[in-house]
Amino acid sequence: MSVSPRLPAGDARPRFGVNYTPRQGWFHSWLDLDLDAVGEDLAAVASLGVDHIRIFPLWPLLQPNRTFIRPRALDDVRAVVDVAAELGLDVVVDALQGHLSSFDFIPSWLATWHRRNMFTDPEVIAAAADLVRSLSSRLADSPNLLGLTLGNEVNQFSASNHPDPDPLSVEQAATWTRTLLQAARDGAPQGMHTVANYDAAWFMDDHAFTPDQSAQLGDATVVHSWIFDGTGQRYGARSYEVAHRTEYYLELARAFSPAPERPLWLQEVGAPRSILEEDDVPWFVRSTVENSLQCPELWGITWWCSHDVSRSLADFPPLEHTLGLFDEGGRLKSSGAAFRDAIAAARETTAPAPRGPAIELAVGSEPLLQRSAAAPGGSVFEQWMAASRAGDRPSIRVVRETASGTAGDTRTGGAAATRVAG
What we know:
The chain has a single domain (15-353), classed as Glycosidases (TIM Barrel, Alpha-Beta Barrel). Helix content is 33%, strand content 12%. The protein contains 14 helices and eleven strands. It has helices at 35-46, 59-62, 71-86, 122-139, 170-187, 200-203, 211-216, 231-235, 240-243, 245-255, 281-292, 334-346, 379-389, 415-421, and strands at residues 15-19, 52-55, 90-94, 99-100, 103-104, 145-149, 221-225, 264-269, 298-304, 358-362, 395-399. Helix 1 links the parallel strand 1 and strand 2 (52-55). Helix 4 (122-139) runs parallel beside helix 5 (170-187) and helix 11 (281-292) packs parallel to helix 12.
């Protein structure tokens, strides 16, 4: 599906949303859910003019034992979805948490004495599928459910730069993704179900999760775009490359699409103060939205995130305390005002003009796609930015032949990325 059923038929305007980070207690608030506090947070979010949120129930709370899924935890997720419905907000639910803001949330039955590979162990895969199926079934009749996403950048657990990786092959990564997407469809056949891989899938040559998987599996192609991936460090905070980072990334994702009409979802983008000065932030928000809207098939933009992480909570990378559109007291920040204004301006924009000539990305073939030339500083990235600066509105064309080109900066990987950025 390329357009939410809640929009009028034929209305292909991009959607706008926010990744919801609870103001009180962060995601630990799932331990003792306060629906009044949730309602206050979401009312503030709705005031920005967004139409959806993305929420993150914690995996260990949903499934503390491999064969036990807590009914009360599923009910809590449904309750938050229902609160959002009262405020006119659609909801995307992330199923496996997974990884959030440099912290890992995996159940104890995957760690230490019970250490298993979450992607290849048959019993673990079956248990994860049971959870996804149970969660989607519990939410299937929610009129404001958009769909499920398979966790938040769960592929980072397999990355070669992870401190304790779960290794797997390209084929095993595809099998894992297909299995869990099917579980989501089993429970909620009408949902828009997606996989949310972080950008190692697009830029790291040795990564088992590939661009083809992101662009072919699930109902939309999801990208998470962060300028602390080397873009901001290499080119500077107010650079052309920073302003057009998401536009480039969306065009890269579109190049791998098997169907021209496949929707693209900018599911995460934020304004990291590790790169940007506070005065840069409104410019960055406006530029990011305006330039992303130049991409055909853009389904929507979901900003990271709603509220700053409270400074009373320890051990977060410093940037995590600054990413909210609202501060930890619930006050609207300049970033929130800029996002609100960008949404309003977007309602008046016309459809993007056709893209121009294509920059070729030669990727070779699986199992190890040569994709680092597309990373910031790589030859394809540089060519695209030069053509864009010249006004060519370039696209990207994937060439399935022996790869060549200069590798770019692949400093990425969940917690690793935030440590580099901070």
